[in-house]
Fold this protein.
Amino acid sequence: MGFTSKLEKNLLDVQECMKDGSYELGPYRKMWVFVPKKRLVMALDYPDRIVQWCLYLYLNPIYDKLFIEDSYACRKGKGSHKAAKRLQYWMQQVSRKPGPGWYCLKLDISKYFYRVNHDKLLEILSRRIADQEMMEFVRGVVNSKAEPFGLPRWRSPDDTPPEEWEYETGMPIGNLTSQLFANIYLNELDQYCKHKLKIHYYIRYMDDVIILGPNKWVLHEWKEEIEEFLEKELHLDLNAKTSIRPMKSGIEFVGVRIWPTHMKLRKSTVRRIKRETRKISSLYASGDMAKDAFDRRATSIRGMLKHAECASLRWRLNEIYREEMERAKNEKKEVEYEPFADHPGTGERNGNSGESD
């Protein structure tokens, strides 16, 4: 409430600090999140988040038009569902081609957000930012001395003591500008793959890259060239999860396993959805969550289910909801309401479970 209680004055103060070059971001608040995997997230205070939005609104129009069509993360009109549908469309196309069957190269970049090289990122940004004052401000954001964001090569947050974290690499997970910078940085890889290697079936969602090829030998060649480019140009590494597999076994991408004919949620995604459903149902049943808040969370979950075959999973989520309602013995809540049905209020008992093998 401190900042918003005198909003106009405080905004003008921030503006003046930005004009005279005295504005500095930080400090960051650290927190661990465990979904979908364990990560260290860093959050800024309210005034700093306003400045981040201003910077994003300035930079995004400059760079978004430079991105390839098949980059889908954190972009207006894109998103994970469209990425999944695009990849499935390609799989349908190539499955009709003659031959023994296509293969998939899945790139996994080691500790991407923790390993982005600041000097390289600033060099990329300087190609398009003509305003030197803005460039200096961007430099201050990237090279923030408030907190080190980077990890030594092949290290993880768990096994790196505070004194070994690096100031010259990394971006804070959780920052709006980090999402944009992440896309800008890997746009270098996108352009290399599309224009130098001439790869047609190439799609990226943040640091998850999928490439389709007519055989595993051409994919091995592309993998070697990409690995060399990442190391020499972007100071990044591929980790052991990078793989080449037959397309017919399905492709894991953006939380689903995709085949030409259908999609299924990953088992880890299903487990996460069930945990979230039990959590919000319990909070709502006990009166610790308002109905509009519950409905928003339920809508988000339905959105995750929308493009996969998961009628039985929807039925199970509604069962979890009813279990929590009955456990709370709160007769005021709608026990028969089915918030996770395709159309809330109606049940679905038949159909695929939605879990991939």
